[in-house]
Amino acid sequence: MEAPTFRELAVQALSSVERGYDLLAPKFDATPFRTPEPFLAATRDALREHGPFERGLDVCTGTGAGLGVLAEVTAEPPTGVDFSAGMLEQAGVAHPEADLVRADARALPFVAAYDLAVSFGALGHFLPEERLPLFAGIHRALRPGGIFALPAAQGPRPTRPAYWMLTGFDLAMRVRNAVWRPKFVMYYRTHPRPALLRDLTEVGFVAGTTPMPGVGELIVARKKG
Asked: Where do the Methyltransferase domain residues begin and end (predicted)?
């Protein structure tokens, strides 16, 4: 697959989130933004310690990287939800067995339908004040005792160049969103672990973490049963 050109990435970055991903979808899997395979494999292995699972939901599924993980740890075909029609089209090609639903993750149309929900690499598209409605919708979509698993990569230390690259990216996006409409919400450093665990607990989860050696940790939030 051919990677997107600089011009294509620039057009995407100046669009809304939905339109931007519609444009990027055909080449998304050739970009560094796709969740890496080692991260997906580590998540799959960690999830097996908490199963078995019957039905799985991939929130903000994109082109469906998380659907492959769910297919390996759940008994039934997975469901993917996203608000980009272009990304869902690509997910359907890669995972024809999956049930794909176009919806806003902040208003999920499911009630007690799943016993596992996951989300990969999408949290940066939500502002801190949107975490509670996002988590509340996932909580509502799960059956009693169900798990929301949120893989979290190891954050770089301030002594590493990657730390300042991510910080600089967030600053550039804030400037972009201050002077350009429509906004494109994507930030890397707005969801610290303590805030995530606090908000998961507030909506009714019992939250903790499972180590994923070499890549990070899996935040495991269980709905009280």
From this structure: 57-146
